[in-house]
Structure formats: structure tokens, C-alpha cells
Automatic annotation (TrEMBL):
The keyword Cytoplasm does not apply. Keywords: Isomerase, Rotamase, Signal. Its EC number is 5.2.1.8. It comes from Pontibacter locisalis. Residues 180-280, 283-393 form the PpiC domain. It comes from the Bacteria. This is Peptidylprolyl isomerase. GO terms for molecular function: peptidyl-prolyl cis-trans isomerase activity. Residues 1-26 form the signal peptide.
Length: 454
């Protein structure tokens, strides 16, 4: 890969070689036809559509003009990714199924939040969550294997303060990036809850359906008629085979207590209320069907959530509890509670968020706040449509400026570390290119992919 000094190119190298970025993590499944193999790396292939998809995606994100040199860089990175996978097979580097499943569930949760809920995600792709997971599983597994290989190659690489200063000094003065005002933000979220009466109504509806099943009516027929799970209702409620820990705990625990053909009592989960019927066990997997009834949410009230947040805010303001600990203990937002409530930039994954990328609803809350302040509870609607309230913590706010070592030391240190890791991985590539079979379509010979061996 050609050496560069500016942050934009380095960011590209970092995404290709070091970590899977937030954007890459959120890539949605894409239908691709076998449109021509342009590269073979042992048992792995790169299709022309793979190259075009990654090329167009990078152009859209970076707002660069189309150019063949960039396309060649992307082809090189794709070849190197496949080389990592090929070497992982030779070196017996694997990722445990449970870790793949956990990462896959996180990806689905992220996509669900992006489109506004499970139902919208399934409707958008016209596929059930299970089908989407099946399609994404191999991609997630390969990404995790590549990350593990990268960690083995460059995980111990570090940079000294002297190397950081030397890296920064190599950047031409007219190429220094201009950073707009950035903020570090935290939030603690509480969802508005449906009333006990609404829950009781849903439970009673399912109890009545259960009596009909026990009296002899067909579970699948009633699922088609009553279930509010759009991904399974038309299939008679059948979910297909799942392994342990792939479904929510309440559902799984009830399902595994059943014998084939047996119907559970009413089970409550985060999705609503379920009746579950075990269809079959096969080794470590089990297949069930269910009827889902969701409590009506038209009349939820955020007052209780607001009152709870007000009490939490008082504890933090009075130094009885840190904001991070309060977020971990009380926040309903699982995407931020384990990071001390801190929000991250969707573009970079960094906790330093440019002001022009801040959610407008949050922007107007923090606009008049001082650094260190915590807002009063603010009602809002989550991306998946839930009514909720939150308190916002303004941890820091920078002024617009040209990059400099004093204000941006950590960013520069990260960029310098990424460059050094990139060099370590490039060295590894040069040493390992001849350990696997590589063939590049003559149409792309001008990209000189194999010159990395020199």
C-alpha cells in the first residue's frame, strides 16, 4: 500500500487492516450474483461485485471523486483480507461459535435500531430475523477471524511519545486537518412502561388462546390468526432451529422445559407475551413455534420514567454516584450502559462527536449547557419508536481548531499507532504472499496487487 501522510488516507488503511469500523459493522446484507471471479486466494474468491460494492461505498463515505488508483487500493485490501482468512485456515485460527452468535446478535440489534424496530427490519428485507442471521453469519465469522489474525500480527505494537511527535511532524502544514467543535456526551435512558392493566389484557388474551389449544385447536392455525410476530406468524409461528443462548433467556428457558408437542404457560419477555410449543430437538438445537401478543402501547406515559431519572440525576449531582456507574446500573439503553452511558460517533466509533453530527434533539439540549453539567430529564422517541426519557451529560467540548499535539494528542497517537500497525501487517503480507495460491484476473494487472511481495 502506498505510504501517505494525511489523516484521511490513514483512516482508510486503518479500516482495511486494523479494525472493523462502525460503518462496516452496520453493513446490511446485499444480494449479489456470481458475476465473475476477479481474484482467487486459496479457497477464497473475490467477485467483481465485491470490489464494486466496496468501491462505491467508500466513495459515498469519503466524498472522493472516482479514480482507478483508489479502486486498486480497495482490491489490494480485499486480497489481503482473503489472505488473512487463508492463513487463518493454515494456522488453525478459529472463533468460537458462541462469540460469533453474540457479535451477530449485536449487529442485528444495531440494524434494528437503524430502521426503527424488528418489524421494520423484517419488512424491509422481506425476511425473518432468523433468515437475516443465517445470511450474515459467515460474514461476521470471517470478520472476527480477520480481527483475531490482525491481533496476533500487530496486537503488541505500540508507539512512544517520540514516535507520535515524529509522525505529527511529517504531516505538511497545509495538510493538517481542521477539527470542528467536538463534544463528549453521555446519556441515561429510561423507557416508558406500559401499564399493568395493558399487560394483564395481553396475558388474558393469550390465556384464552391457550385454553383453545388445550381443547384441541391447532397451534399453528391460531398463530397465523393471532400472533403479532410478523416474521413467523404466516409460518404458523415456527421460528426454526436455534442453539442455546440465541433466543432471549425467558423464552429459551420455557421452551427447553417442554416435550415435543407440548405448549407452555404464558411467558413474558422484552418482546411481549408468548405461548410456546416445542416442535423438535436435534442435538444442541431446538425448533419451536410461538404466538406473540404485545401489550397495547398507545397510552404509555413517560412521567414515571422522568421521575426516576430526576432521582438518578440528583444522586449524581450530589456526588452520591458517578454518572458512569448510574448509567451501568439504571440505563435501559443497552448500547451505551456498559460504556458509562457515553455516546459514540456513528462515522468513526469515537467518543468525540463533531457538533454537526450530534442528534438535533440532543444538540438543542446541550447548546446552553456548561461542561460537566447534566440536563434535566428530556422526553424523546427512540429509533425503534419507543417513548422514553433521558438525561444528557456534557463531559467535554472543544473549540474548532487545526490539529495540534496539545489538543489532539490522543487522536494523533491513535493515527500514529494505526500507521505502525499497518506497516507491521504489510510486512506480514509480504512474508506470507507466497505461502498461499493467489491468482488475479488479467483485467486488474495494472493494480499490481502482487507487487506487495517485493
Amino acid at each position: 500500500m502506498r505510504k501517505t501522510n494525511n489523516f484521511a488516507r490513514l483512516a482508510f488503511v486503518a479500516v482495511c487492516f486494523i479494525v472493523t469500523s462502525v460503518t462496516a459493522f452496520a453493513q446490511t446484507p446485499v444480494q449479489r450474483k456470481v458475476d465473475g471471479i476477479i481474484a482467487k486466494i486459496d479457497n477464497h474468491v473475490i467477485l467483481k461485485s465485491d470490489l464494486e460494492f466496496n468501491y462505491l461505498q467508500y466513495l459515498a463515505q469519503s466524498k472522493q471523486q472516482p479514480n482507478e488508483e483508489l479502486k486498486c487500493e480497495i482490491l489490494r485490501s480485499l486480497v489481503q483480507d482473503k489472505l488473512l482468512l487463508a492463513r487463518a485456515e493454515i494456522d488453525s485460527v478459529v472463533v468460537e461459535d458462541a462469540m460469533v452468535t453474540d457479535q451477530l446478535n449485536r449487529r442485528i440489534d444495531y440494524l434494528t435500531a437503524q430502521v426503527g424496530g424488528v418489524e421494520r427490519l423484517e419488512q424491509y428485507y422481506n425476511k425473518s430475523i432468523r433468515q437475516l442471521k443465517d445470511e450474515l453469519r459467515k460474514t461476521v465469522q470471517e470478520q472476527m477471524i480477520m480481527e483475531r489474525m490482525q491481533q496476533q500480527i500487530a496486537g503488541k505494537v505500540s508507539v512512544t511519545p517520540k514516535e507520535i511527535k515524529r509522525y505529527f511532524s511529517r504531516i505538511p502544514q497545509d495538510s493538517l486537518p481542521y477539527f470542528s467543535s467536538e463534544v463528549e456526551l453521555g446519556q441515561i435512558v429510561k423507557y416508558a412502561q406500559v401499564s399493568k392493566q395493558q399487560k394483564q389484557t395481553a396475558r388474558e388474551q393469550l390465556e384464552a388462546i391457550r385454553k383453545r389449544i388445550l381443547a384441541g385447536e391447532d397451534f399453528a392455525t391460531l398463530a397465523k390468526q393471532y400472533s403479532q410476530d410478523p416474521g413467523s406468524a404466516q409460518a404458523g409461528g415456527e421460528l426454526g432451529f436455534f442453539k442455546k443462548k440465541e433466543l432471549v433467556p425467558e423464552y429459551e428457558a420455557a421452551a427447553l422445559r417442554l416435550e415435543p408437542g407440548q405448549t407452555s404457560n404464558v411467558v413474558e419477555s422484552q418482546f411481549g407475551f408468548h405461548l410456546i410449543q416445542l416442535i423438535e430437538r436435534k442435538g444442541q438445537e431446538f425448533n419451536t413455534r410461538h404466538i406473540l401478543i404485545k401489550p397495547a402501547t398507545a397510552t404509555v406515559d413517560v412521567e414515571e420514567a422522568t421521575a426516576e431519572l430526576d432521582s438518578i440525576r440528583t444522586l449524581v449531582v450530589n456526588d452520591s454516584l458517578t454518572f458512569a456507574k448510574a448509567a451501568k446500573e439504571f440505563s435501559d439503553d443497552k448500547n451505551t450502559k456498559d460504556t458509562g452511558g457515553m455516546l459514540t460517533s456513528r462515522a468513526t466509533g469515537s467518543m468525540y462527536i463533531p457538533m454537526d453530527q450530534v442528534d438535533p434533539a440532543i444538540f438543542f439540549v446541550i447548546d446552553t449547557m456548561q461542561v460537566g453539567e447534566i440536563s434535566k430529564p428530556v422526553p424523546f422517541r427512540t429509533e425503534d419508536g419507543q417513548e422514553a426519557a433521558r438525561i444528557i451529560y456534557l463531559k467535554s467540548k472543544s473549540k474548532p481548531h487545526l490539529a495540534n499535539l496539545q489538543d489532539d494528542y490522543q487522536k494523533i497517537a491513535t493515527a500514529a499507532l494505526n500507521e505502525k500497525k499497518g506497516k507491521a501487517i504489510e510486512t506480514w503480507f509480504r512474508k506470507n504472499f507466497d505461502t498461499v495460491y493467489i491468482e488475479i484476473d488479467p483485467e486488474y494487472q495494472d493494480c499490481k496487487v502482487l507487487q506487495l511481495t517485493q
